[in-house]
Amino acid sequence: MRFKPLTLLLATTFLVACGTQTPTALTPTETMKVSVGTDPHSFAEYEKVAIAHVDLHLDVDMGKRQLVGHVRLDLERHDPEWKRLVLDTRDLDIQDVMGVREDGTFIGLSWVLGQSRGHLGQPLTIILPMGLDEVRIDYASRPEAFGLQWLNEQQTSSGKPFMFSQSQPHYARTWVPLQDTPAVRYTFSATIQAPEELMVVMGAGGNPERLSPTGLYQFDMPQPIPSYLMAIAVGELEFVAIGPRSGVYAEPDWIDRAAQEFDVLEEMMDIGEALYGPYRWGRYDLLVLPPSFPFGGMENPRLSFLTPTIIAGDGSLLALVAHELAHSWSGNLVTNAAWRDLWLNEGFTVYFEARIMEALYGERVENMLAKLDWDGLVEVVASADEQDRQLVRDLSDRDPEEAFMRVPYDMGRFFIDWLEDRFGREALDQFLRAYFDAFAFQSIDSETFREYAIEHLFERYPNRATVAQMDEWLYEPGMPDFAVAPNSSAFEEVDDIREQWLGGEIASDSVVARDWSVYEWQHFLTGLMGQIDQAGMFTLDDAFGLTQTQNVEILYLWLQLAVETEYAPGLERLEQFLLEVGRNKFTRPLYAALAETQWGRPWAIEIYQRAKSGYHPLTQQASERALGLSSDIIEPQ
Ligand code: BES
Ligand code: ZN
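^ thats the input. predicted complex w/ BES below
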């Protein structure tokens, strides 16, 4: 389904003419109709004219919480007759729009900002004179920009302010006016002026090893990327090299722990290359963000952004780094053309992550990871709406944020597992390598993958699996009966121990859990939901110090149990956790669990009010929904 065309309330007085050039040969109706384009989450008419290069010139104003400056966009015209350029914007102050002539001189262009459409923002329509291939837009972002978080001195460990972006899925438009759809790819360059005591890094080439004495930084991204991979961060940062082409950035307090935790990074890159071909982005660095970072990780090219909560001290949460690195192939190199195809990014990446983990830590570890994924997925699939249980999902009238559920991740992964089971690992690896080569630096839809798989897998190795079966994976709700479940024996011992402990057959201190991995703990604790009482919480805590664990995955489940059993020491830790950490995967369900109880909801609201100013806009929105505080779920009409 498509959106209805949006009619701009447009009279000539609404057009802000900025110079000599006036629109020619364009009928009023042509300028008036701006509907969402081929991608339902963007206004861009990229089949007609597309951005080929973005050149950013921005000043970072930490005090005003604004990026101020201009962007120059080089255009590629697919339809030479097309006379307008429609860009996505949200909460941007557009000051001026100019055309750049071939000789470098400017001409004023006519432009108009359309009506706001909730999370989609406002289309910026620019009248393009014939033959003009570059525009310049002077603009500023607003303090409330959804894709940026601004932290003040009190909110960081360095005591210096910090700013970072999160552009996926459609928030690049809150800090750069552009065609904000993964279907469009462009190269970019950037010149960023920051306060002298702060460092600027970007998901691009040119990241500094030291502070620039002038506060001026220059970046270059020669590989074409989609807008959701545009990334910037500014703060007091230090750099430590890990391997010849890898390293880590973090605030001074975190840098040593980070460098130690991520010391296998270069090895992971080698494994990735051995599996699916060369790493094509030059360097790969990690940036550790303040704990308010709303995700575990974000695969910004050349510089993945990470939550500090995965620094457990023992490398036990590195699957997340493997995941973000894997996106350098699945996602960043071959990209979903729209958010309905998200499984092409995330499903392949979870599969790829598993292969890296297996190569690093062996089959047993991989098997436990797979079992945890499977169990989680089975639960989600059982309760999700029919339309949300599908790999390829119609999201046209929904917020693309809603694409990010377990289904594209884990069902996507088990689809690839199934292909591996049917065609054999060797054939599948060969196929995947060829797939990444064939579509490198392209954005494709699920149907393009399907066609390619039919030709290069199903027809090449007949009688292993049918296309009808693949279609069931892609287009039918839920998991097919013929899906291949991971080895169920992974946690048998843990299950036995849990049962004996719950039945009082063994005491807490004799639970043989001292050498359990995080995965065994996750499985053990998940199985205690609804089973354990307060006394049980006390004895387990006595034996294993779970309230004080440094492992955030274990802590998260323990805190869920604390809410369920009203276990006071755990609730105290929960309060501290919610005040410190803004990682949505944890904060949202914890607030939701509290909100379900009579005693917990008012307490949670009170904590939220104290925590709110330190949360990212995304975490604020999700927490408010979890607490039933917001009625502002904005639906585009
Ligand atoms: N691309 C996602 C991050 C993301 C998620 C951005 C949702 C926008 C909306 C990233 O690759 C990711 O999946 N991160 C996961 C970790 C992963 C190991 C499942 C996360 O942040 O928890
Ligand atoms: Zn991912």
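The mean pLDDT is 93.
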